[in-house]
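Objective 1b. Sequence-to-structure analysis of Sugar porter family MFS transporter.
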Amino acid sequence: MTIRAVDEAPLNKFHRKLTWACAGGPFLDGYLLSIIGVALVGMSKELHLSTGDESLIGAAALVGIFVGGLFFGALTDKLGREAMYTIDLAVLVGGSILSVFANETWQLVLLRFVLGMAIGADYPIATSLLAEWVPNKHRGRLLGILILAWYVGAAAAYVIGYAMAEIGGTGTWRWMLASGAVLSAVILLLRIGTPESPLWLVNKGRTADAQKAIKKALDRTVSIDDLLAASADEQAVEQSGFRDLFRGAYLRRTLFCGLFYMCQITPMFALYTFGPTILGSFGLGEGNVSNLGSGLISVVFVLGCIPALRLVDRVGRRPVIVWSFALMVVPLAVLGGGSALPVAVVVACFCAYALFSGGPTVLEWTYPNELFPTSVRATAGGVATSISRIGAAAGTYLLPISLDRLGIGTTMLIGAGITVLGWLVSFAWAEETRGRTLAETSALPGSGRSVAAGGERSDALRKSGL
């Protein structure tokens, strides 16, 4: 089922505002996950934290993201995108404020876990809402923009943390945590008033509400009769649930989305840790200045995403992800040479990896939203996020051990091996979804809703205004 009034609408102020509002979640993810690293320096001194305490505080948010994505994605498919879209931001505001008053390790761990759950919930909520509102030909680029916000948020955290530490010293760690509440409140205000997804409303049989939402957002009128027909079309499709993601034809898509996401993000987290060491060669790796160096790392990854944003809608999803993973292997393999490599080669490899990683990065949320129907779209996005965080948590925990016992060269070769797995998964399972409606991209082969069937249906829908 497709709503032509939405699918073929020209980009307007609503689409731009919705994109920025949805990008607020990834921005806060990058910010909140990074600001804690800056704040831990002063926090450890004041609260006398042990190394184990620091590890628990640092890992709590990642565990929370895993739980939040897994649970709240499914809840979003049942309750709707609009309500959850603002609730999770309210939790971020409250959790950040309470963090300012924490004086015990367990309090910080609990609050970081709650913040992680809200962040993990926002990924499937915001991405499914945006995917169901944006015009078909711009969907890949606009969904890809959301991941850029993560790196911008991380860079902002390091810059703001650096400035606070310079002005007030490491004792300003509580103000660093409070800054997350301010940013969350700003994004929450930006989200207020966003209409519900018309696809979700039609899927639930709420055609009158869908008509009002389209009129409010796009100033386009679709008749109730046409929406009733669309609703009947949607209800004719088997309504899938959480379990359906792990059986039958959807299992392959679930594994693809989760595994390529995990294979992309695991080495990336490792390079984030390795990055300050590289920058240390230029005098940017010691003391508070290292926060600026870490911010520069985020900027490099942002630059890598920019060309990919244009290519996913021009060249296609499949060639971008397959070729990107193949090219990402090369710099990691070269870094396998270890510390004996010249600094210029190490820096060049780091920049090349950042550039090539843009393809899988911008598709992290595009594929889950395109390959699954309305009834489980947010659920699938949440599952993919949860699977990816297994790799992120494992990489963060195991990297120091690997560096200590195996050395930097072997560690980078392990990263190359993980990236090869990402290439194999993408080569075997990546589907091409460029230029197709959500109804067509989410249809299973042989389901009667294939591209060909979609093309026949499009003629009828054009006559009905959908």
